[in-house]
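Give me the fold.
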Amino acid sequence: MSERLTLPVLPLREVVLFPGVSAPVGAGRPTTLRAIEAALKSDSRLIFAVAQRENVDTVSPDVLYTTGTIAKISQIQRGLGGVQLLLHGERRGMALHYTDNGRYLEAVVREVDDLPPLNAEDPAFVGLHREARERAAELGQKSGLPEEVVRQVLEEVTDPGRLADLVAGYLEIQPAERQGLLETLSVEERLRRVLIHVQRQIGVLDAQEHIKSQVQEELGERQREMFLREQMKAIRKELGEGDEGTEVEDLRKRFEALGLPEAARKEVDRELDRLERANRDSMEAQVIRTYLETMAELPWNKRVEESLDLKRAAEILEQDHYGLKDVKDQVLEFLAVRQLRQRSPDAVAQGNDDDKQARGQILLFVGPPGVGKTSIAKSIARAMGRPYVRISLGGARDEADIRGHRRTYVGAMPGRIIQGMKQAGAKNPVFLLDELDKLGVSFQGDPAAALLEVLDPAQNDSFTDHYLGVPFDLSQVLFVATANFPQSIPGPLLDRLETVTFAGYTEREKLEIAKRYLVPRQLHENGLTPEQLTITDAALSEIITSYTREAGVRQLEREIGKLGRKVARQIAGGEVERVAVDAKDVDDLIGRPRVHPEHKAREDQVGVATGMYYTPVGGDIMFVEASVMRGKGELVLTGQLGDVMKESARAALTYAKSHADPLGIPEEAFANTDIHIHVPAGAIPKDGPSAGVTMATALVSALSRRPARHDLAMTGEVTLRGRVLPIGGVKEKVLGAVRAGIRTIVLPIENAADLDDLPEDVRSSLDVHLVCAHRSMYTSWRIWTKS
C-alpha cells in the first residue's frame, strides 16, 4: 500500500506542477506563507502543491482539486511582497482529506503510482513513445531552445510516464487541460494526449512562422523598392534631371498641346505644382496623378468633322430603319441647318473654329418598347459621321452618377457624362441617354435635377463636374434621350427636350421590317442560309397577328428566331435539306397561337356597338353591350370600368333620355326599366372618356330596338348636349379597327388632322365620317344604326 503523508498545502493559481518538473512559484497569502514555513521546518521540506478550481483569494478545501503533486522546496527567496519558491515535483499525490489547523491547510496525501501499459514491448506503444519523443524534440527546437540542450534533457528521461510529465510541464495549454493530464494515471493515455497537444502547438508555431516570413518578405520588398527609388533620385540629381521632372514635364507638354480654357489651365497648373512637391509614393501624389491624367484624356478642343451630305445621310437612315419618317426628317433638317450655317458669310469670316452658333439639339424619343428608339440614335451618329456614346440611366439614383464625386472622397471619379465624353474622344458626339424615365430618387440626391444643366442649351457650355471642378463645354453634343412614359420625367426636365413620338408599327410595317432586317439577322444567328430556310409573307403575317401583341418588333424577332432554331435542328439532324415555311406550317413549328385579336361582329345586333381603344402595344376594338329589362330605373355598369368610364355611361344615358324623340326612343322605354351596360373582357381594367359615343350608340340601339351597324367602329367623348369631343391615339385606334376588318370609322371632326399619320394605303381604304362638335349627335344617327 502506498505511503500516507500529512503535508502542508500550497494552493496554486493558474499553475499545475508535474512530477519531475521544476517550476518557480510566487506566494504572498498569509496562510500560504505559514504553510511554506511549516514545510521548511521539516527535514524533508515537502509540500503538497495542488491547483485551485477557481481563482479566489480565500482558499477552502472546496476550491482545491484532489490530485496534486508532492513537491520539494529547492530554493526560497524572500521579499517585501512575499516569497519566490523553486519547486521540484517529486511524485503524484491524492489528497484523502483536507484539514484547517487554524494557521494553514494540511492534507493527508497518498502517493499515486502510474498505470503502466499492459505490454511495454507492444509495437503500438513503442511507436507512440518514439513519436512523442521526436515531436517533443521538434517542439523544443521550434520554440527556440538549443538543439543540444533539448537532446540532453530528453536523453536523461527514459521512462515513458516521466517523459509525458516532462513535456506536459512545458506545454502552453489551459490550466484545466494541464490538470486533466496530471489526473491521467494511464501512461499510454497520458502519452497519447500529450502528443496531440504537442502536434497542435507545432502547427501553431508553423503558421506563426509562415505569417512572420510573409510579413518580412513584404516589408523587405518595400524597403528594397524604397532603396532603389532613393538611388534613382540620387542618379537623376547627379545627371541634373531633377526628382520627378520627366513625369511632370510629360504632363505639361500634353496639356500645352490641348489648348485648355483659362479656368482649366489654372487648375491644371496648380495640380502640377502640387505633384512636383509631393512624394511620388504618397497617396496624395496618386490622387493628383489620376486627376491630371483624366483631364489630359478629355476632348477639350478636339472635334470630328461631321458629314453634312444630306443624300448620303438619308440613304444611311433608310438602310438601318424602315418607317420612322418624322424622326428621319428631323435629323435631315438638323443637318441642312448645319450645312447652311457653315456656308454663311459670318461662319466663313470666323473661320468656323468654335462653331458657337451651332448649338447641339436635345431630342427626346418617346414610345413603347421595341420600336427602335435606341437603335435610331446609333444610325443618326453614323449618318452624321459623329462618335456614338450611350449611357443607361435606368435605376440611377445618385446625383454623383451625373456630376461625379468631389476629389476629397476616397475613390472619387467623374460622372457618367464626363466619362462618356472621355470615351467619345471628341467634343461633338451623339450622346444617348437611355431610359430617361427610369431615373430614381434617393437620399443621395435627385439625378434628374442634375441633368437640368446638362440638357439646357443655354447652360451646358459650362457644365461643371464635381470631380473636374472646372467648366466643360457640352454645347456641341447632340443629346438624344429615350423614354417609354414621358409622364415619369419631371416637368422642368421635359421642358428642355424636343419630343419626338414613336408610334407603334402597323402590320404592314412589321412585315417589311421582318423581311428586310429580322429574318436575315436570325438566319445568320442560327447558322442558316436563305436557301435553307424560306419564310413566305403569309407566314410572317401569321406570326405577326397570331403570336405577337406589341408596338415594336422584339417579340416578333424572338418568334422568328424560335422558328429558325426549329428548322436548324431539322437540318442538322439530316431530316431535311431546306424548308419553306408557309402560314399553315407556323403552328407545327412554334406551337399554337397565343394572341387572339378581336374581329368585327358577324351581323348587326340591337344594343351592341363597336368602339376603339388604345394600348401602348397598339390599338384594338371592343364591344359595348346594353340591355333593357324591367326594373326600378337603375343603371348597372359591369366590366371593371374606371370612374371616368362610368361617368361617360351616365352622361350617355342622360343624353338619350333628353333626346328621346329625335332619336326615335318611345316614351315608355324608360318607365319601370333597368339598363345594364357591359364591356366584355371583365378581367381587364378599363377607363377613359373616349368610349362615350360607343356607349351612347349602344344605349340608343337598345332603347329604340334598332340594330347598330356591325361594320362600323367609333370613338369620341360625348357630352350631355350631344357634342362629340376629340380624343387621342387615333392612329393606333384606327389601325386596330382595320386589323379587325372594319373600314367605316366615326371620329370627332377635330381629330381629322390625325388621319395624316396613317399610312397612305390604309387611309385610302377607309370610309371616315367626322362628327362636328357643335352639332347634335343624332344628326349622324343614320350612319350608325339601321332604321
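The chain is about 45% helix and 20% strand.
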